[in-house]
Amino acid sequence: MAKVTVPVIRARKGVEKIAMVTAYDFPGAKLASEAGIDIILVGDSAANVVHGFDTTLSISLEMMAFHVAAVARAKPHSLVVGDMPWMSFHISPEDTVRNAATLVRAGAEAVKIEGGSERIPHIERLIAAEIPVMGHLGLTPQSVHAEGGYRVQGRRLDTARRIIRDAQALEEAGIFALVLEGVPEALASVVTDRISTPTIGIGAGRSADGQVLVFHDLLGMGFGRYPKFVRQYANLRDIATDALRRFRDDVKTGNFPGKKETYRVDPGLEEALQLEETPSTANVFSL
Ligand code: KIV
User: Fold this and answer.
1) Closest ligand 1 atom to the C-alpha of 200?
2) Are the C-beta atoms of residues 9 and 175 closer than 8 Å to each other?
3) Which string of DSSP letters, residue by residue, matches 123-148?
């Protein structure tokens, strides 16, 4: 499979839908790559689905770099995008570039930033530093406290207009793709029509240029309530629990390990070992 790059994603608009999934480690990235996924987002959702935090605000840049590095070691054919965690792009454009460079050095080929026009100076500096940027509008989980929860965005004319204006401003700043999360389909459709940058929806209906889901949601490995927009393509939680239960039962009953899972020595050596006298504890201590 050919490597997916930023220009490849830009050229997909109106030609072929983009499939993006989150992944946080080596096996996740291998699976996504082997399945032909276009973009792996090393999302800050790792805070929730991997580390068990309540919000994404708890994950640090160092933790994100750790996940990006594990994904990059899989050398996926998919484009690797590192999510900039909360407070890594909120202070100054200089700080933002330094923090993004940490993710790029860990193996990210682009970064994602939540927010609208207020992020333009930071995005421009990243692009000037040759770091491709993916935007993220609509329901932005890092705004959970400011918004008072996770709510669908752009349901009113004024908020819908703001999202359209923000999308145009981000495009002008040079983003290569835009995540639209938790917005009505009609709004995602207008944004997708008005910008020439590919849009990637999550809870944004069918009109976006691509779709993204969180790895653990898609595979049924979550432990909370799944959002309405999730389609579960497998139930790995049940499969894994069943496998672990069978392992436990086999251990308890002595059914594991069997002959096939056991190393052997030549029968002669085995016999010699059996016959050899084991030194008593007293002897061992007196040695
Ligand atoms: O962190 C994440 O998983 C995301 C996606 C939901 C787009 O930002």
Assistant:
1) 7
2) no
3) HHHHHHTT--EEEEEES-GGGHHHHT
The secondary structure element, H or E, covering residue 81 is: strand 79-83
Active-site residue, 118 included: no
For residue 170 and ligand 1, the question of a CB distance below 6 A is answered with: no
282 pLDDT higher than 80: no
Give CA separation, 148 vs 53, 225, 234, in Å. 17, 19, 32
- Which residues fall within 8 angstroms of residue 254, CB to CB, at 6 or more apart? none
Coil, helix or strand at residue 266:
coil
- The amino acid at 35: A
Residue 189 in tokens:
């459709």
In the predicted model, what is the mean pLDDT of the chain? Answer: 96
pLDDT of 287 higher than 90: no
DSSP count for the chain of H helices, then E strands: 13, 8
Q: Which of 64, 112, 133, 175 to mutate to test the pocket of ligand 1 (most atoms within 8 A of CB)?
A: 112
Tokens in use for 120?
């333009």
Angle at 138 between CA 144 and CA 155, to 5 degrees: 105
pLDDT surpasses 80 at 42: yes
Q: Is there a contact between 80 and 107 (Cβ–Cβ < 8 Å)?
A: yes
CB-hemisphere CA count at 13 Å for 201?
Answer: 23
* Cα gap 96→42, rounded to integer Å: 17
| Residues in CB range of 272: below 8 A, 6 or more apart | none
Atom of ligand 1 nearest to the CA of 141: 8
8-state DSSP, 51: T
- Euclidean distance between the first and the last CA atom of the chain, given in angstroms as a whole number: 62
- CA atoms of 120 and 122, how far apart (whole Å): 5
